[in-house]
């Protein structure tokens, strides 16, 4: 069983399906390497010594093209709750694949908190259950 199928199965999305649709690259924007900085660097610049309350963003994407909005919030250091119940299984699987890669690349975490509902937590956010 491949890694993608294992992740899809673990996250409750069943068998990973082949993607029917091609990616839509119309909205791509080129970004210079100098424009990228970590969430902790942005937070340090924005907050300074004053601690602001954490922000949790709840999103319910309806199509895969909504992925950049999720990515933007997560890269800004915000915790995201994503509900993919309004998406087809194929698109929901693609979206979960995307955010799992995003979380891994940003050293964050992804947790399934309900059927088709996922928590994306930046590296500096501690998740406890109890």
UniProtKB/TrEMBL annotation:
Name this polypeptide is given: Cell division protein SepF
Gene name as annotated: sepF
Assembly behavior: Homodimer. Interacts with FtsZ.
Predominant place of localization: cytoplasm
Keywords, alphabetical: Cell cycle, Cell division, Cytoplasm, Septation
Keyword GTP-binding on entry: no
Annotated localization: Cytoplasm
One Pfam short name: SepF
Family: Belongs to the SepF family.
Domain of life where this protein originates: Bacteria
Task performed by this protein: Cell division protein that is part of the divisome complex and is recruited early to the Z-ring. Probably stimulates Z-ring formation, perhaps through the cross-linking of FtsZ protofilaments. Its function overlaps with FtsA.
InterPro entries in UniProt: Cell_div_SepF (IPR023052), Cell_div_SepF/SepF-rel (IPR007561), SepF-like_sf (IPR038594)
Keyword 4Fe-4S tagged: no
């Amino acid at each position: 069983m491949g890694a993608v199928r294992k992740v899809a199965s673990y996250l409750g999305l069943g068998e990973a399906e082949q993607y029917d649709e091609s990616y839509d690259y119309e909205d791509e924007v080129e970004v210079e390497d100098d424009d990228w900085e970590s969430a902790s660097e942005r937070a340090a610049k924005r907050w300074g010594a004053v601690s602001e309350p954490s922000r949790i963003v709840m999103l319910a994407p309806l199509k895969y093209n909504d992925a950049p909005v999720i990515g933007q919030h997560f890269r800004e250091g915000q915790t995201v709750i994503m509900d993919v119940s309004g998406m087809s299984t194929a698109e929901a699987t693609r979206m979960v694949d995307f955010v799992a890669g995003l979380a891994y690349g940003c050293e964050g975490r992804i947790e399934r908190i309900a059927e088709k509902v996922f928590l994306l937590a930046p590296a500096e956010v501690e998740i406890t259950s109890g």
